Amino acid sequence: MGKKTTPKSVTVNKADQTMEIVWADGHESVYGLEGLRKNCPCVICKGGHESMSTAADRSLFLQEPDRYWEINDLKQVGNHALQIFWSDGHSNGMYRWDHLRAMCPCKECYPPEVREAELTH
Ligand SMILES: [Zn+2]
Ligand SMILES: [Zn+2]
């Protein structure tokens, strides 16, 4: 595993409704909980096996959340993924570290130009 996809720490900040990952290469990713929940990679949320390979929708991180989310628990799955136990009882999603890094919504990883390009697709 490369440094880019190796997490050094994962912190959930309930008050801010965010989960922050600091990566081994020093990069920090801050994910809004609702965007993260809506990007759940499990087969139920993705709507069937044929959609499993579709990329995360990072624009979800830029929307105003319409509810309050809590994370009850986090579990490391092997060394490749993170399982999130949501307050709505859902816990099927295995968020792969490389996917999480790829969906980093920071301005550096997800500049407005890229967002525009994705939205016009
Ligand atoms: Zn799911
Ligand atoms: Zn980033």
Concise overview:
This protein is of the alpha+beta class and 121 residues long.
Indicate the CATH architecture. Answer: 2-Layer Sandwich
Q: Bound compounds, please?
A: zinc ion
Give the biggest beta sheet: 3 strands, antiparallel
Instruction: Assign the structural class, choosing from mainly alpha, mainly beta, alpha/beta, alpha+beta, or little secondary structure.
Output: alpha+beta
Instruction: Give the count of helical stretches.
Output: 4
Oligomeric state of this protein: single chain
User: Percentage of helical residues?
Assistant: 10-25%
CATH class: Alpha Beta
Mean pLDDT: 93
Give the low-pLDDT segments. none
Spatial strand order of the main sheet: 1-2-3
Task: Look up the CATH topology.
Answer: NE0471 N-terminal domain-like
Spatial separation of the terminal alpha carbons? 31 Å
Strand portion, in percent? 25-35%
Number of domains: 1
Instruction: Write down the secondary-structure element order.
Output: EEEHHEEEHH
Gyration radius over CA: 14 Å
What is the count of β-strands?
6
Q: Which shape, going by the Cα principal axes?
A: globular
